[in-house]
Write a structure and sequence with these properties.
The protein has helices at 6-19, 32-37, 63-66, 73-87, 91-100, 106-109, 133-138, 144-155, 188-205, 215-222, 227-230, 248-253, 258-274, and strands spanning 117-118, 124-128, 170-174, 209-213, 235-237, 240-245. It has 280 residues and is α/β, with parallel strands linked by helices. It has a single domain (76-274), classed as Uracil-DNA Glycosylase, subunit E, CATH 3.40.470.10. The protein has a 6-stranded mixed β-sheet with strand order 1-3-2-4-6-5, with helices on both faces. A hairpin with a 2-residue loop joins strand 5 and strand 6 (240-245). The protein starts with 5 loop residues before the first helix and ends in a 6-residue tail after the last helix.
Amino acid sequence: MAELSREQMVAALAWQLELGADEAIGELPVDRFEESAAPSSKPAPDGRAAQSAPRTAPQTTSPAAAAPPPRDAASDAVAEAEAAAAAADSLEALRAAMAAYPHCELRHGARSLVFADGQPGARVMIIGEAPGRDEDIQGKPFVGRAGGLLDRMLAAIGLDRAAPAPESAVYITNVLPWRPPQNRDPKPEEIAMLMPFLRRHVALADPDVIVAMGNISCQALLGKRGITRLRGTWAQALGLPCLPMFHPAYLLRTPSAKRESWADLLSLKAHLLETEGTGG
């Protein structure tokens, strides 16, 4: 190819500028990082190859190892919940501690803190999943259609959340006191940070039996999911007998499952009769 004259090269450059070119690049990409990291092979001024820099003594402790480990925000939130729950010496104090707990974002979108309903000291403590729309509005667990069905189920075996006597009363709460957006399932980190409050809640309410209603309750109390498989089989949760059952909201969607729930209610009634007066 014939060598271009100076005038031709200037004209070619002017044409590229008109096209919008603003920097000179080659046809192939160049890795500038690799280029800067590679040792220089340029000869020294005296003609000898440049010598590499002298090796320094290895550090005994790297800066990363010397720095303190980063704090885990989730662990801090759980630790703060444990401290706040342990300091509560009554149900009223526990409710106040939960209301003051700042780390669960659900509290910002919920209308109410849904704490509990029924009779503290009742033999049976029912633990649901999380408040729904009706619960969030009224500030009580298990209201609306699902709550009405639960009341009828309990009445069938002689229990009532409004009963004054512990033998025929129930005490009701949820794993989460705040409604999740759009009634979504609680996240594992939300359950983890609120479990210290639930454990303290059970200890202060002092029931003989826990009824875990729904998948989320079983996950929190038993570390298991699969309510269709778990329901009706007695287990241990927080040191107490625990009976997993279908949530009433599920029964409204799946009426055919009411037969299994009736069997579970009869199992609960039989357990209460067998352990009456024994505190178990």
